[in-house]
């Protein structure tokens, strides 16, 4: 059953909680939201905005257009570049992947994936990872780094790019976004939160890819998301990114409620720029733009990589935007706003001072090459091979070690160092025969897995394999080391395993971006099982080895049921995607230098069906529809609601020590019901349009002498092409009158009173074991309302405790933590009902609970 609530022009779809039926996709409709809100320097943005405005004020129309438009795929050094402003000596801005380091970089680091950052549940490490990555991007002269990721969030456990992001929980992802954005931008690079929004699977995100797999689709998949789910689940971590002052947001390929992510006025103008008061720029994902004026009016600010399709030589923006302004279909104030948003992000991160020139190139790792790679022009020094790694290997190793999640341990870990013979099994223990960068964009899995595939990758400067690191350690200790890396050499495996004191068995599961198919996995995983018959490998080892320790390198949850209860499987570590220091960080944990303190950022189920939601992996219709009928109930919320026992629940993870919780106290800091809806009007749009002479924007006379092939330019061909008139536009798109501030808006991240702390929770945690270690104190909220998840994560804190030590851990809950989105009021609202706070070490192991009063 679907309720359609019609409200002052807004259509909001809510799912009645007790009637879980299929909404008719035809109802998935995205309401228009115009005009596009202009940047106003709110929050911390005043100084940057003022400088940006002054800068943009002196620009000609074509110079402004140049800031908004990419120069075309492979036309410049980076995966995306905008045009230059030669008159002011203003260089091209460079946008470069990825969320875990510099894609195509040389002498740069391969950081652990976003998922591993989330696995640490450690805010400081998340920040430091962001800072270190930011330093590297800046060192290469990259203006905008294309990360972090909060879409996909993880609706589907098979989602190909879940590992690029953080967690299937919005709160944990929100913290990952916040800390990463802060870190990156503190280093002076503009962070790009992506993919906004609802980009939960790879298949059907783009028509071309879908067709390549034989599906006769005409438009991208539509993620059909109701208003409440949008606010409380998918938008939540983006709100945190905006609150952290993220400078850029990348809109996604697929449609949301049957309107493309990069032309969806409700998402861009409405939620992002009005409600969240986002002050930065919206850039398109690469070729995710499908219109010119319509996208601009809907809130798109930058076209990436600029051309309509890769290397087409034409653009929806570029000269067409100049034309649109001249013929009256696009108001100049919208172009000014785009340029001002771009320049505000630039000034906000202080890129006007000592920012290095881009000194890397995406299309070759050689020193010399074509700057205009596609057209093979401008040959010269393109890679200065600047070593930007600094001491980042330390944070990489520390974070990866602390990300390790100990799933099972019968006491065999940590290793004592006195085991006589260590054996390692599986291709995942060693190096791929092609070298760590041997598969383009890491599209292969035949050695140890340390990142997934696609654009979310970086080149490895080196990759320390588990075999190398463990061998080095074992040799120091005088242990014997044997290894069989062929996953199928069962007879050698059994023989070796029989003699070993401990059998470290390495297994993996990989996924990535949809343009690469690895072994039938078209980005998304085709199943949740281990690759290379990992289950059989483990069972073979365990058949002759009484001490089988399994290490899993994986992009997300995998099914463990075939062997998890096997008595010879004595310990299991989930290591995720650890990046370049893989083997070292693992050795730190195996030998006990680091006490594992990772916790699951998703649920590990017993069976695939237990997750409920399914990928849309076929389509008989021209426009695939994906109805998010489960609403808020993904991952642990679904398991709780349906009383399904997972194998390992969200938040779970063991330690080499034990902890005790006591003295739970709750202190009220402010009135939880004291939320104040924002009021008033935004400033009037006082833009004056000067009369522009089309003749000023023609291709320059000497153009043929410097033209670059397939490059996107901002000029028009002929004055007679400019046909002024009245063009159709969405209602209100040209409106320059003052607009009301949305009740839920008023400052970057949304209404400031949402973020006022209202309760302080304190609890005493004691290390009751025999080893120093870190505990992740998790705070869950239960509202008791039938249409809410049973519990939701609302806070966490990681704390280090020596043996016997006790510490008081204090965390705060703010109003947003306690409120719900009302589709009727179009605002956050307090709910009735007794709220209970549960504190413990996972989403199913609560040590203490108390009422919120
Ligand atoms: C497409 C991917 O979806 C996006 O994440 C990436 O930043 C761009 N390509 C540029 O490579």
TrEMBL record:
Q: Which Gene3D superfamilies match?
A: Glycoside hydrolase family 3 C-terminal domain, Glycoside hydrolase, family 3, N-terminal domain, Immunoglobulins
> What keywords would UniProt list here?
Carbohydrate metabolism, Glycoprotein, Glycosidase, Hydrolase, Polysaccharide degradation, Signal
Classify the source by domain of life. Eukaryota
Q: Which GO terms describe its biological process?
A: cellulose catabolic process
**Do you know which PROSITE patterns this protein is assigned to?**
GLYCOSYL_HYDROL_F3 (PS00775)
EC numbers for this chain: 3.2.1.21
- Give the main EC class: hydrolase
What InterPro entries does the annotation carry?
Cellulose_deg_GH3, Fn3-like, GH, Glyco_hydro_3_AS, Glyco_hydro_3_C, Glyco_hydro_3_C_sf, Glyco_hydro_3_N, Glyco_hydro_3_N_sf
Is Nuclease among the key words of this record?
no
One Pfam short name = Glyco_hydro_3
Q: What is this protein called?
A: beta-glucosidase
The organism is Pyronema omphalodes (strain CBS 100304)
């Amino acid at each position: 059953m679907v309720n359609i609530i019609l409200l002052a022009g807004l259509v909001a779809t809510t799912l009645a909680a007790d009637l879980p039926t299929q909404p008719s996709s035809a109802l998935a409709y995205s309401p228009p939201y115009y005009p596009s809100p202009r940047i106003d320097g709110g929050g911390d943005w005043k100084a940057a905005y003022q400088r940006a405005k002054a800068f943009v004020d002196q620009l000609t129309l074509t110079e402004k257009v140049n800031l908004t438009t990419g120069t075309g795929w492979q036309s410049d050094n980076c995966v995306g570049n905008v045009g230059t402003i030669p008159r002011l000596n203003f260089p091209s801005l460079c946008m470069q992947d990825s969320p875990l380091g510099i894609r195509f970089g040389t002498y740069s680091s391969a950081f652990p994936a976003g998922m591993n950052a989330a696995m640490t549940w450690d805010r400081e490490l998340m920040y430091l990872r962001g800072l270190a990555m930011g330093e590297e991007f800046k060192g290469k002269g990259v203006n905008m780094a294309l990360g972090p990721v909060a879409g996909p969030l993880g609706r589907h456990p098979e989602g190909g790019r879940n590992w690029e992001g953080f967690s299937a929980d919005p709160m944990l992802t929100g913290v990952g976004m916040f800390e990463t954005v802060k870190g990156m931008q503190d280093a002076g690079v503009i962070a790009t939160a992506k993919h906004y929004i609802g980009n939960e699977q790879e298949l059907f995100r783009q028509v071309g890819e879908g067709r390549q797999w034989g599906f006769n689709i005409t438009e991208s998949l539509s993620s059909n998301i109701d208003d409440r789910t949008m606010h409380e689940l998918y938008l939540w971590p983006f709100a945190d990114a905006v609150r952290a002052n993220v400078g850029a947001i990348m809109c996604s390929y697929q449609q949301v409620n049957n309107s493309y992510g990069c032309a969806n006025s409700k998402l861009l103008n409405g939620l992002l720029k009005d409600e969240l008061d986002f002050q930065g720029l919206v850039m398109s994902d690469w070729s995710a733009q499908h219109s010119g004026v319509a996208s601009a009016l809907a809130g798109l600010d930058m076209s990436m990589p600029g051309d309509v399709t890769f290397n087409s030589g034409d653009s929806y923006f570029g000269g067409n935007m100049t034309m649109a302004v001249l013929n009256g279909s696009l108001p100049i104030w919208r172009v000014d706003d785009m340029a001002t948003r771009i320049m505000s992000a630039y000034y906000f991160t202080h890129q006007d001072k000592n920012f290095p020139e881009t000194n890397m190139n995406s299309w070759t790792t050689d020193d010399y090459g074509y700057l205009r790679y596609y057209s093979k022009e401008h040959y010269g020094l393109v890679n200065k091979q600047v070593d930007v790694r600094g001491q980042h290997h330390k944070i990489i190793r520390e974070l990866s070690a602390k990300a390790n999640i100990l799933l099972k341990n019968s006491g065999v870990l940590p290793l004592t160092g006195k085991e006589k013979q260590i054996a390692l099994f599986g291709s995942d223990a060693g190096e791929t025969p092609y070298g760590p960068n041997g598969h383009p964009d890491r599209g292969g899995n035949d050695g140890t897995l340390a990142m997934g595939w696609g654009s979310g990758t970086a080149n490895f400067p080196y990759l320390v394999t588990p075999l190398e690191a463990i061998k080095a350690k074992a040799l120091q200790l005088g242990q014997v080391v044997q290894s069989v890396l062929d996953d199928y050499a069962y007879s050698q495996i059994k023989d070796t395993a029989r003699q070993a004191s401990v059998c470290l068995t390495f297994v993996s599961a990989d996924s990535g971006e949809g343009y690469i198919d690895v072994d039938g996995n078209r980005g998304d995983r085709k199943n949740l099982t281990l690759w290379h018959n990992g289950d059989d490998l483990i069972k073979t080892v365990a058949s002759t080895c009484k001490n089988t320790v399994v290490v899993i390198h994986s992009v997300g949850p995998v099914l463990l049921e075939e062997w998890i209860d096997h008595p010879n499987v004595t310990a299991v570590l989930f290591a995720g995607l650890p990046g370049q220091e893989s083997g070292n960080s693992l050795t730190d944990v195996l030998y006990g230098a680091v006490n594992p303190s990772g916790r699951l950022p998703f649920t590990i189920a017993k069976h695939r069906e237990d997750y409920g939601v399914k990928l849309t992996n076929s389509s008989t219709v021209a426009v695939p529809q994906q109805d998010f009928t489960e609403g808020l109930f993904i991952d642990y919320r679904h398991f709780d609601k349906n009383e399904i026992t997972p194998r390992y629940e969200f938040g779970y993870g063991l330690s080499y020590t034990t902890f005790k919780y006591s003295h739970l106290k709750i202190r009220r800091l402010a009135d939880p019901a004291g939320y104040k809806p924002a009021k008033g009007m935004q400033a009037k749009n006082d833009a004056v349009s000067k009369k522009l002479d089309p003749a000023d924007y023609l291709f320059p006379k000497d153009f043929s002498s410097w033209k670059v092939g397939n490059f996107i330019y901002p000029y028009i061909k002929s004055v007679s092409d400019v046909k002024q008139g009245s063009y159709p536009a969405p209602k209100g798109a040209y409106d320059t009158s003052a607009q009301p501030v949305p009740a839920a808006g008023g400052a970057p991240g949304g209404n400031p009173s949402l973020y006022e702390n209202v309760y302080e929770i304190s609890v005493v945690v004691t290390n009751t074991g025999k080893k120093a270690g870190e505990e992740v104190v998790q705070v869950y909220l239960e509202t008791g309302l039938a249409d809410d998840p049973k519990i939701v994560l609302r806070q966490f804190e990681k704390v280090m405790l020596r043996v016997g030590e006790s510490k008081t851990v204090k965390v705060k809950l703010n109003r947003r933590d306690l409120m719900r989105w009302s589709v009727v009021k179009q605002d956050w609202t307090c709910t009735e009902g007794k709220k209970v706070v549960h504190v413990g070490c996972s989403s199913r192991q609560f040590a203490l609970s108390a009422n919120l009063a």
